[in-house]
Amino acid sequence: MPASPAPTPADQAIVLLRKLGAADIAHPGGTLVAHLQRVHGQLAVWGARPALQVAGLCHAFYGTDGFPTALLSLDSRAELAEVIGAEAEAIVYLYASCDRRATYPTLMDAEGAFRDRFTGLLHTPEPHLRRDFAELSAANELDLARIDSVFREKWGAELLALFTRFRPLLSHPAWSDCRTVLAAAPQD
Prior knowledge:
This protein is mainly alpha-helical. It has nine helices and four strands, in the order αββαααααββααα.
């Protein structure tokens, strides 16, 4: 009998998400684990590299500026890195640590400061991390906008303006979806 293939980091992350209760946490469109799986799938459709896809699946492990429920404490970063890899975990931390109000206005600036909401420290992420952050942000917000018309009505124009500013950081498929999902419906 042939050996079963080794579980992927995404497979292992799903096991950990379920173990930590993500399947029982309400989130627009069902549960947190369902949302995370949709974000992971969206990044895959856009052709994101595996580390970014897995980061999309795990982006809420430490909570976020918009979703404070954390599955792991920050002193457990090594545990998550062991499951998904150091590169993916670093993206998860970057996403979770973002103080959006302080960071969004300058994310496009080459020397723009990124404020870590956990430490209060400012730093300047490398360009590839800025692109990862923007792509993950788009996948996350577009999932919410697709499944929740009230969210889209309330935040769609603001998110479209944000992703228009982020456009140089976004892949072509991500930008195309931002326009499609967030553009105002034609008025009759």
